[in-house]
Specification:
seven-stranded mixed sheet, 18% strand
C-alpha cells in the first residue's frame, strides 16, 4: 500500500524497512487467540505482517486518505476493523472485546508521543503496549533514578507499569528520513493495579510539582510549591518514611519513594 505522501502536520514517518517491520511484529508476540490494536498503521507497514496472524486486528488511523485506503484494502476481512479516529479521543472499550487482554502496537508520531502513552495507560489498561518512539523518549521512559534522562515521564509510567527498551531503529529505516533515531519500547501495566485512581491522581500532582522545580531540594518543593504547601514537620516525617532526604532533588527519588510520599502527604 503506497498511499498518499506523508503529512508533516501529523508527524508521519513511515517505517519502510521490512526486517524491522517483522522484528517489531515478532516483539508483540501475538497469535491467533489475541486481539491487537495498531495505532497509526499508516500505509500498513506493520499491518501486513499482523493480518492473518492475530485473532482480530483493530486499526486506528487519523489520516483521512490512509484510513480510506485501509478500509478498502481489508474490507473483505472480518478479522480486521478500521477505526477512523484520533487515538487520543478513542475509547478502547468501545472497539475491543476485553481491554485487559488487548495488545497495542504502533509507530507513533514523535510530536505527541507522551500524550498517546498516557492515553493508552488510562484505565482500563491494556495487557501490553509496544511502541516505536524517538530514541531520546525511549531513554526517558526507562530511565533510572539519578540519571540525566530520569524525570516525570519515567515516574509516571514506571509507577503503574514495567517498561523496557527492546532495540534501536535507525532513522534510515523510515521515509521520509527523520532527524533522529527511534527505539522500540514495551510497556506492561502492573497487575494487580498497585494504586487506586485517587492515589494515582495524588501521585501525579506530586510528580508534576517536583519536576517543575527539579533543580530545587525536596524541602523547598514540598513547602513552597503552590500545588503542595506541606508543613515542614509533615514533610520531614513523610520523607523519612519514604527513605528520602529533604536535601534530595527530585531525580534522586525512585517511583516507589514518590508513591510513599504522595500517600503520606496528599
Amino acid at each position: 500500500m503506497r498511499g498518499p505522501r506523508p503529512k508533516r502536520s501529523l508527524g508521519q514517518n513511515f517505517l519502510v524497512d521490512p526486517n524491522f517491520q517483522r522484528k517489531i511484529v515478532d516483539a508483540v508476540g501475538a497469535g491467533p487467540d489475541d486481539e491487537v490494536m495498531e495505532v497509526g498503521p499508516g500505509r500498513g507497514a506493520l499491518t501486513r505482517h499482523l493480518v492473518g496472524k492475530v485473532g482480530r486486528l483493530v486499526l486506528v488511523e487519523l489520516d483521512d486518505a490512509l484510513a480510506a485506503d485501509l478500509q478498502e484494502a481489508y474490507r473483505s476481512r472480518e478479522d480486521v476493523t478500521v477505526v477512523h479516529a484520533d487515538i487520543l479521543s478513542v475509547d478502547l472499550a468501545e472497539h475491543v472485546r476485553d481491554v485487559a487482554a488487548l495488545r497495542i502496537v504502533g509507530n507513533i508520531p514523535y510530536n505527541i508521543t507522551t500524550p498517546i502513552l498516557f492515553r493508552l495507560l488510562k484505565r482500563p489498561r491494556p495487557r501490553e503496549i509496544v511502541v516505536l518512539v524517538q530514541e531520546e523518549v525511549a531513554d526517558r521512559i526507562v530511565a533510572a533514578p539519578g540519571t540525566s534522562a530520569y524525570g516525570a515521564l519515567a515516574v509516571g509510567i514506571q509507577s503503574v507499569a514495567h517498561a523496557e527498551r527492546l532495540f534501536r531503529v535507525g532513522r534510515n529505516a523510515f521515509r521520509p528520513v527523520p532527524r533522529v533515531d527511534s527505539a522500540l519500547v514495551r510497556v506492561r501495566p502492573l497487575r494487580p493495579e498497585p494504586l487506586d485512581e485517587r492515589q494515582e491522581a495524588r501521585l501525579r500532582t506530586l510528580v508534576r510539582a517536583s519536576f517543575q522545580w527539579r533543580r530545587k531540594q525536596l524541602a523547598k518543593i514540598l513547602r513552597d510549591h503552590p500545588d503542595l504547601r506541606v508543613p515542614a514537620d509533615r514533610a520531614e516525617a513523610a520523607a523519612e518514611r519514604a527513605g528520602a532526604g529533604l536535601q534530595d532533588r527530585p531525580e534522586r527519588l525512585s517511583p516507589g519513594q514518590f508513591i510513599t510520599l504522595s500517600s503520606e502527604l496528599l
